[in-house]
TrEMBL record:
Provenance organism: Kuraishia capsulata CBS 1993
Protein family: Belongs to the SPS2 family.
Membrane topology note: Lipid-anchor; GPI-anchor
PANTHER family attached to this UniProt entry: RECEPTOR PROTEIN-TYROSINE KINASE (PTHR31018:SF3), SPORULATION-SPECIFIC PROTEIN-RELATED (PTHR31018)
The protein's name: Receptor L-domain domain-containing protein
One of the GO biological process terms: fungal-type cell wall organization
GO cellular component, one term: cell surface
Record keyword Signal present: yes
Keyword flag Metal-binding: no
Length: 198
């Protein structure tokens, strides 16, 4: 896998006993990238990955306390779902997310970088959640049909800030689906999670 450069479909690393993942030359995943339920995983290296065509899902990896190693990732064509007990999540090059954005950690995660990404309009989906032990941000956007033709700079999106309790209800809906999925239906479940945030 060290020389693999492009994956045209999806890549799933699910319920394995691996301690590290390294795809140092991989630049593109055409579908969804899923790293889910790897209880021994401590690190992931996708240093040259620039594009994920589908969803970007990293969830329930018990020992993964930092989500990094994605320093070149610029574009995600679907939703972002990051859940677990991590203190850091870094996507420094990210400029475009076509779907929703759901980051929920029981660790001391700082949401400020992701909040800034949302404020700049780089997250195009209708939901944005960043929730950690120390902070919480949740925004839902909706566009009415009568206003969608408007070409004003401010647009017709109405933003509603939700409370922590409403964002936790979204966590309750997503987390069990990830935690209880079977290997035979994992991509269907992940696709359902990703579509929920489009």
């Amino acid at each position: 896998m060290a020389s693999l450069q492009v994956i045209n479909a999806s890549l799933g690393l699910i319920n394995n006993e691996i301690e590290s993942i390294s795809f140092p030359d991989l630049t593109k995943v055409g579908g969804t990238l899923s790293i889910v339920g790897n209880d021994d995983l401590k690190s992931a290296n996708f240093s040259e990955l620039t594009t994920v065509g589908g969803g970007f899902v990293i969830a329930n990896n018990t020992k993964l306390d930092e989500i990094d190693g994605f320093d070149s990732l610029k574009s995600i064509g679907g939703a972002v779902v990051l859940t677990g007990d991590f203190d850091k999540a870094k996507l420094p090059a990210l400029t475009s997310v076509k779907g929703g954005f759901d980051v929920e950690s029981t660790g001391e995660l700082d949401c400020s970088d992701f909040d800034e990404l949302e404020k700049k309009g780089r997250i195009q989906g209708d939901k944005f959640v960043c929730k950690a032990a120390s902070s919480s941000t949740s925004i839902s956007q909706s566009v009415s049909e009568t206003d969608s033709d408007s070409s004003t700079e401010s647009g017709s999106a109405s933003e509603t800030a939700s409370s922590s309790s409403s964002s936790s209800s979204s966590k309750g809906a997503a987390a069990p689906a990830v935690g209880t999925m079977k290997a035979t239906s994992v991509f269907g479940s992940l696709a359902a999670i990703a579509l929920a945030f489009l």
